[in-house]
Every structure is written in C-alpha cells, then in structure tokens.
C-alpha cells in the first residue's frame, strides 16, 4: 500500500506509517500510562475499526493522510450500523489517539478531529438490536467445519449464544489440563469460571451444545503448536504485541465481525448483541429474572427488573397477536 512521504524534524523525509502500524505503540503507551484493560481495548479497537473502514472505502490509511472528512464518514457509518452511542465512543477515542500522534511526532499536520462534528447521542437508553433465529443459524453454519479455526469459532459463538458472556470475561478464560487452579473450563460439568473484582468468582453455566463445542475445540487445541499457553483461545498464527500466544478481546471481536459478514448478519456483530439475545430468549422461555441475573453476572437487581418488564411487554404483544389469529368472535358469524 502506498504511503505518503512527509518532512520530519531535522530536514529528512520519511514515509508516514499506517494506522495499524502504530496501533501496537499506542497500546504500549496506554498501558504505560496505567490505563485499565477495558480502556486500552476500547482505544485500540477504535483505531482498528477506523483503519478497516478507510481501507474498504479506498480512503487514506496512513497517519498523515487521514482528514476530518474521512473520520466523519466513518463515524456516520458507525452510527448507522450500530448506534450513535458507539459512534460517540469512537469519536472520543480517536480524538485522544490523534492528539497522541501529533504530540509524539508521528503526524506533522494538526489532528483531524478538530474538524469532526461530535456525534449526537439521544437521551435515554437505546437497546442494542438482538439477533434473530435466522442470523444465529447462519452464523453457526459459517463457523461449522473440522479445522482448528472452525472449532474455535464455533465454541466461542456457542458460549455467547448460550451465556451472553462479556467479551473481557470470554477472552480472559484460562486453560490447563493439569492445574485446576489455572483452569477456568470444565465442559463435563457444563460451567466456566470467571474471576471478578475483589476475589469474587462467577461460575457461568453453559448448555450441552456449548459444552460439546468447547470440548471439541479443546481436543483440537491440544495439537496446536502453542498448546502450552495458559489462555484458552489461541490464534491461528501470530501472538499479541506483548508476545503472548492468545486470542485477545480485539481478536475475538475481529473474528465475530468477519463471521457476521460471512453470515449476512445485519449491522456490526459484537458480543453485547449476543447478551441481549440470550437475555430475551431466556425470559421468553419462562426463565426467572433473578436467576438470569446470577447467570450473566449482573450486580443490580434493577437490571433484572428492567429485563422482566421488557419480557412482559413482549409476552403481551405475542398474546395480542395470538388472539388476532385465534379470536373466538372472529371464528363465528
């Protein structure tokens, strides 16, 4: 890919690096500043998603060539595909990123963010769109297969469908065949262990199909060149910038987006959509809201109550639709 040549301090010229080239340095800087893991993932994800959008739309992908109109187009597309809140998050993250590029001398021009309009987020919470049955079926179909990658992706998707697990929890799962203290995965017992804050632990249940998918992946994992890694999810090829052999939160998100496109899923596929879908399905099937709270790890009872109210509205809508179909009065002249 062609890069721009820019004049640097000292009078010499150099090619402007690509956005993805500096992402690893950006991550190192954030960690050196003591940013939390979730914050680091969010910042780096915004850079990665921006770079992919620019490349797909034949726009500049080097740090010097990106202009306000390019970022603006990306944010508009993000708001349309996901939500204004998600676009606003990218806006905040990219503003910090480009300020760092300028301050560190990687970008000669001023930050393009000065000319980018801040996305407007409407008041009140807009629910993430859940996945429908056809999308879930298509997603499992594109992940099916006997390769290591297919087994891994199927196991991840099955856990998300069945448990709605948070991305950071999913990526942080460890695996050890010999050390129970270093192992978070028990397919035979249909549960996963998620370490929480203050030494708390969530024992997340999974169903038969999810457990079978995890077991099938673990058997393939044993033949992986880096099977000795302490992390459950392994990449196909390279490891992380820190030299770890694991599939990070960013790697899982990339996989989901790719599989989502292959399956024809509407909008950007991300773990929270599975969480929404799982909660809706569980309550529609008659599940107890408080038990759902324990399964997914909610700390607030109010969240369970909100879900119960949503489920009740959905049940009312189904009841009215059923009455319209089976109305005793309409069946009599």
> What is the succession of H and E elements?
EEHHHHHHHEEEHHHHH
Q: Number of helix segments?
A: 12
Broad CATH class of the largest domain: Mainly Alpha
* Main sheet properties: 3 strands, antiparallel
Overall residue-averaged pLDDT value: 84
Any idea what the CATH superfamily of the largest domain is called? Intergrase catalytic core
Largest sheet, order of strands side by side?
3-4-5
The backbone outline, from C-alpha atoms, is: globular
Strand content: 5-15%
Q: Taking Cα atoms only, what radius of gyration do you get, to the nearest Å?
A: 23 Å
Number of strands: 5
Protein name: Integrase
GO biological process, one term: DNA recombination
Pfam families: Phage_int_SAM_1, Phage_integrase
Domain Tyr recombinase: 126-324
Commentary on this structure:
The chain is mainly α and 333 residues long. It has two domains: 103 residues, DNA polymerase, domain 1, CATH 1.10.150; 149 residues, hpI Integrase, Chain A, CATH 1.10.443. The chain has twelve helices and five strands. A three-stranded antiparallel sheet has the order 3-4-5. Strand 4 and strand 5 form a beta hairpin. Helix 2 packs across helix 4, helix 6 runs antiparallel to helix 8 and helix 11 crosses helix 12. The longest helix is centred in the C-terminal third of the chain and has 26 residues. It is globular. The N and C termini lie far apart (73 Å). About 2% of the residues have low confidence. One of its GO terms (molecular function) is DNA binding. InterPro entries: DNA_brk_join_enz (IPR011010), Integrase-like_cat_sf (IPR013762), Integrase_catalytic (IPR002104), Integrase_recombinase_N (IPR010998), Integrase_SAM-like_N (IPR004107), Tyrosine_recombinase_XerCD (IPR050090). Belongs to the 'phage' integrase family.
């Amino acid at each position: 890919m062609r890069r721009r040549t820019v004049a640097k301090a000292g009078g010499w010229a150099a090619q402007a690096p690509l956005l993805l080239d500096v992402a690893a340095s950006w991550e190192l800087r954030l960690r050196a500043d003591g940013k939390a893991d979730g914050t680091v993932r969010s910042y780096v994800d915004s850079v990665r998603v921006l770079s992919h959008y620019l490349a797909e739309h034949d726009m500049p992908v080097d740090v010097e060539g990106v202009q306000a109109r390019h970022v603006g187009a990306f944010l508009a597309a993000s708001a349309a595909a996901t939500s204004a809140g998600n676009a606003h998050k990218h806006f905040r993250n990219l503003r910090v990123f480009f300020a760092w590029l300028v301050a560190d001398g990687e970008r000669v021009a001023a930050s393009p963010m000065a000319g980018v309009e801040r996305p407007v987020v409407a008041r009140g919470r807009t629910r993430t769109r859940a996945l429908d049955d056809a999308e879930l079926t298509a997603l499992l179909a594109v992940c099916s297969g006997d390769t290591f990658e297919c087994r891994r992706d199927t196991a991840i998707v099955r856990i998300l469908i069945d448990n709605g697990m948070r991305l950071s929890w999913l990526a942080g799962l460890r695996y050890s065949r010999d050390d129970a203290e270093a192992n978070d995965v028990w397919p035979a017992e249909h549960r996963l262990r998620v370490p929480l804050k203050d030494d708390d632990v969530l024992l997340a249940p999974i169903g038969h199909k999810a457990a079978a998918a995890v077991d099938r992946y673990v058997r393939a994992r044993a033949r992986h060149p880096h099977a000795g890694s302490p992390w459950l999810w392994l990449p196909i090829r390279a490891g992380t910038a820190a030299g770890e052999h694991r599939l990070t939160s960013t790697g899982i998100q990339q996989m989901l987006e790719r599989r989502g496109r292959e399956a024809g899923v509407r909008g950007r596929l991300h773990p929270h959509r599975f969480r929404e879908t799982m909660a809706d399905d569980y309550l529609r099937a008659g599940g107890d809201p408080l038990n759902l709270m324990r399964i997914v790890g909610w700390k607030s009872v109010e969240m369970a109550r909100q879900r119960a109210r949503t489920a009740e509205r959905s049940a009312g809508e189904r009841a009215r639709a059923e009455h319209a179909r089976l109305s005793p009065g309409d069946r009599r002249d």
